[in-house]
């Protein structure tokens, strides 16, 4: 009877090639590092060749290891197609997809993407979890969702990502706030010293703001959603920095006023994120393709 290599060992080997160390590979695949090391050792014994050279600075693939990585990618891709097909059969022909999305994406972009996906795949069943960016990544790493959408200036670690859209953060205030009537732009130094209404720690918006300021924002009030921040600001509270997507309607209606900023770059990227093989396939791949086209 033929004994086949364990899929998780192949995933770990590919992850070492992609991330440079066995420790990073273990985190990406979601196994403990001692188990990852044993899995690679079993794979080496099974194939009868050394695949990795381990050192304190990381793990380097041998020549044989590089070849096996290329073959492993093909095997994992075929395995993913098998899994997706089996899932579809088990659900009477209907694909299933669990998506976790940050609030900005979930509120303003994801509905249109899912509408297009359903037009292409009428039988698909989609479950959406609305989380902040840190929670989306955690759900991915714990296997509680198939695909995530996150926001922020930097790609999260431990997952594969691709940019699907770009966004801009803007400073907003109530029409009655003194900043709504000022003639000169607000500077970064002023923002650093000003109490703001902010999203909670772990949200992509909060992370992007803190990075842009170079220091944690001073929070007069932390709110768990974009909508809550908008209401607090428009009610006459402190200013806030939010996605333009989240405040477009309020700016158009005059409920909020955009305040120019002099010396701060607040553009950011919105990303799809996933674990497993780097090549995303099935309905998750279809949804990412739709997001990138739109």
From TrEMBL:
GO terms for molecular function: DNA-binding transcription factor activity; transcription cis-regulatory region binding. InterPro entries: LysR_HTH_N, LysR_subst-bd, WH-like_DNA-bd_sf, WH_DNA-bd_sf. Keywords: DNA-binding, Transcription, Transcription regulation. The keyword Transmembrane helix does not apply. The keyword DNA-binding applies. PROSITE patterns: HTH_LYSR (PS50931). Residues 5-62 form the HTH lysR-type domain. PANTHER family: HTH-TYPE TRANSCRIPTIONAL REGULATOR, HTH-TYPE TRANSCRIPTIONAL REGULATOR CYSL. Belongs to the LysR transcriptional regulatory family. This is LysR family transcriptional regulator. It comes from Metallococcus carri.
